Amino acid sequence: MKVLSNTYLFQMYNNATKIGNIFKNYKHTDKVSEEILKDSMDIIKKYNFPTKNKIISEMVDGNIICAFNSQTLNLPISIPSFLTLKQNDKVEGGMGLTSMNNIMAVVNLTRFASINFTTNIMRLDLRKFFALLQSGLFLRGCMESWSAITKNFNLKKIGCDIYQKIFSKVLDKKYAINLNPEIADAISYFAAKFFQINLMEQNDSEIIKNTAYSCCRNETARSKINTYESYEETDTYTNLSTFVDFLNKAFPSLKSMTIRQFCEDYMRLYGQSTIFALEFFPAFATMLGNVLVGCNINNEYVIDSLIGKKADNFYIELSAIVTK
């Protein structure tokens, strides 16, 4: 599974803010103690979400920890958790050469909680707390079970449909693409392909195309959609920027759209916390998980009204994999 830092959106953000230095400078002394977390964890243990037991066991095993530092961990809300090596583990070449046993998810509470280290009292909405812990589970779980995730056809099919709806909605609000059923179907088709090829790292194939076509709702003939594929290039699905370039060329009504404008419209609609869901599968999963938990970290009412029960279906499929 690719890491967040390899995505186009992260690299652009890092170029402007040098946010990558926060990961490099993370210290294990920023870990929040069990004593501070105890009261919140006692309540979370009563929740009925399917990820709850796995979250608790991963915290006991040290695979998920919470961190807080108002000086050094000022990450944006779009990065609620990140992966790092466990304390005292030294691996030449970085995480790519180590095993999952040496990797833990750090859940960053800094932007969401207030902690009095004298009284050991933490103030944090419990549903937000659970959603943040769940982001850590999804991040680490996706890396650990990536092969099983990419081979799960139901998960991929549901994810495609959700992604294309979320993507297309942004364009419809700006360019009214739904007024032309053929264009609406074509954009749904290519967005579903982008989800499979970029986020799920699949190779383009007839199966990918058939799955993408199943997301089209206006019964546009496959032959008509295929005509737009002539604008595809070898790098079309490399990242969000090259994909937007493709849309500019394939659809005259979108020729003025820029990557910056699209991202701003996207965040305005769904919330700033969701931006990396466009290119990073664990962030996409976290976005949908937040909707199910009802934590108000993103504009969940907009997402929920758009995709409905499909969020539940995706959540159940993914939870079954990462909680094994």
Total discrete domains: 2
Give the overall average pLDDT. Answer: 95
Q: Main beta sheet, described?
A: 3 strands, mixed
Strand content: 5-15%
Assembly type of the chains comes to single chain
Whole-Å distance between the termini? 18 Å
Biggest β-sheet: strands ordered side by side in the sheet? 1-3-2
Strand count: 5
Percent helix, as a range, is 40-55%
Indicate the overall shape. elongated
Number of helices: 15
Q: N-to-C SSE series?
A: HHHHEEEEEHHHHHHHHHHH
Q: Compute the gyration radius: what is it? A: 20 Å
Low-pLDDT ranges: 89-97
Structural class: mainly alpha
Q: How is this structure best described in words?
A:
The strands form two sheets. This protein has a three-stranded mixed sheet. The chain has a two-stranded antiparallel sheet with strand order 4-5. The model is unreliable at 89-97 (pLDDT under 50). Helix 4 (52-60) packs across helix 5 (126-144) and helix 7 packs across helix 15. A hairpin with a 4-residue loop joins strand 4 and strand 5 (121-123). It is built from 15 helices and five strands. It folds into two domains: 4-144, no CATH class; 149-322, no CATH class. Helices cover 53% and strands 6% of the residues. It has helices spanning 8-17, 20-24, 34-44, 52-60, 126-144, 146-150, 153-175, 181-199, 206-213, 222-226, 240-250, 259-270, 281-293, 300-307, 310-322; strands at 64-67, 81-85, 103-108, 114-116, 121-123. The chain is mainly alpha-helical. The chain is elongated.
